[in-house]
Design goal:
The protein is of the alpha/beta class and about 375 residues long. It folds into 2 domains: about 110 residues, 3-Layer(aba) Sandwich (Rossmann fold); about 220 residues, Glycerate kinase, domain 2, CATH 3.90.1510. The protein has 12 helices and 13 strands. A 6-stranded mixed beta sheet has the order 3-4-5-6-9-10, sandwiched between helices. It has a 5-stranded parallel beta sheet with strand order 2-1-11-12-13. The protein has a two-stranded antiparallel ribbon with strand order 7-8. α1 links the parallel β1 and β2. It is elongated and about 75 Å long. It starts with a strand and ends with a helix.
């Protein structure tokens, strides 16, 4: 029997690799002869760099860049040397976790540091860059990112446009001729699981800016400034960025990556599965065990368990999902390739206790599942 173990991280307690290793431990406790292949996964959000580095035998490289408010922060990216690919989480340089509640202000925050991470990856000679764009603290439409890569984006006075969503009101000209020329030789994929337009009631500001520190007045200003940005982009580059599916992701970084760098916006889990050649890893597999910290009705929207399960189902491979907890609507995953799901919790306990015990709980559950399957 061959089992492919391909979970996401159990956030707050286990990385994807640690989860996979504990599932393997349980399987081997039952029968050491079972062949177990480990493939830690991610969906383009937090943990994507670590998961791909673990899965592909890459390395994590730290880099000092400008943080969301322009101060220096130590960020990171992953380098998959065999694939000549870099993996970036924009949140590592421009994300909400880098700011306190009081510091959050999308009128001022910038994606400049994300651009610096892209430049650092180019310095390694990569041919492909995968960018996860979740968790942003910004609403600057990727202008800061483009400036860090050499674009000349100027205001009405001819000077460099200042950082932040507030400054988009002053944007006048966009010159991409000075962009780092190495970008033309690199494939850029942005992991984007939303289809929000750049502006409007379903756009970047109205849907996401509040969690980044914006009040209602700021939301309206930011939305108006994104409209101004789009007008200049249409005039200067001949592109209506508002029509790009996912343009509003990460405060408009989705639009910026597409119009400035020619990036392709795709489902995060699809990017990851394709990058890891998931189809080949399914060859000869009898059972796929996947999972994540919380399995619920939202898991059908671009998350690891159902993304992996649907591909396994197409090859008529059985799929079991393991989770730290099961939430509302979890039964929906049964229509997306998962044959059965289980929670690791074996008795009433507080969250802290469960998270601390999660390695053992995951191992124990995996062993019991194999015992049931052997009957």
């Amino acid at each position: 029997m061959k089992v492919l173990v391909a979970p996401d991280s159990f956030k707050g307690s286990l990385t994807a690799l640690e989860a996979a290793e504990n599932i393997k431990k349980g399987i081997k406790n039952f029968d050491s002869e079972i062949e177990v292949d480990l493939l830690p996964l991610a969906d383009g959000g937090e943990g994507t760099v670590q998961s791909l580095v673990d899965a592909a035998g890459g390395e994590i490289i730290k880099k000092e860049v400008k943080g969301p408010l322009g101060d220096k922060v130590t960020a990171f990216y992953g380098l998959l040397r065999e694939q000549n690919t870099a993996v970036i989480e924009m949140a590592a340089a421009s994300g909400l976790p880098l700011l306190s509640e009081e510091e959050r202000n999308p009128l001022k925050t910038t994606t400049y540091g994300t651009g610096e991470l892209i430049k650092a990856a180019l310095d390694k000679g990569v041919e492909k860059i995968i960018i996860g764009i979740g968790g942003s603290a910004t609403n600057d439409a990727g202008v800061g990112m483009a400036q860090a890569l050499g674009a000349k984006i100027t205001d009405k006075n001819g000077g460099p446009l200042a950082f932040g969503g507030e400054s988009l009101a002053e944007i006048k000209n966009i010159d991409l001729s000075t962009l780092d020329p190495r970008l033309k030789k690199v494939e850029i994929l942005a992991a984007c699981d939303v289809d929000n337009p750049l502006y409007g009631k379903n756009g970047a500001a109205y849907v996401y800016a509040a969690q980044k520190g914006a009040d209602q007045e700021m939301v309206e200003v930011l939305d108006q400034n994104l409209r101004i940005f789009n007008q200049v982009v249409k005039q200067e580059l001949g592109v209506d960025s508002n029509k790009i599916a996912g343009a509003g992701a990460a405060g408009g970084l989705g639009a910026g990556l597409a119009v400035f760098l020619g990036a392709e916006l795709k489902s995060g889990i699809e990017i990851i599965l394709n990058s890891l050649d998931f189809e080949s890893r399914l060859e000869g597999v009898d059972l796929l065990i996947t999972g994540e910290g919380m399995l619920d009705g939202q898991s059908i929207y671009g998350k690891v368990p159902t993304g992996a399960a649907e591909r396994a189902q197409a090859k008529e491979i059985a799929v079991i999902a393991l989770a730290g907890s099961l939430g509302e609507g979890v039964e929906k995953v049964l229509d997306h390739g998962i044959d059965a799901y289980f929670s690791i919790i074996d008795r009433p306990a507080d969250l802290e206790t469960i998270m601390a015990a999660s390695p053992k709980l995951l191992s124990n559950l995996s062993e019991q599942l194999m015992r049931v399957l052997s009957i």
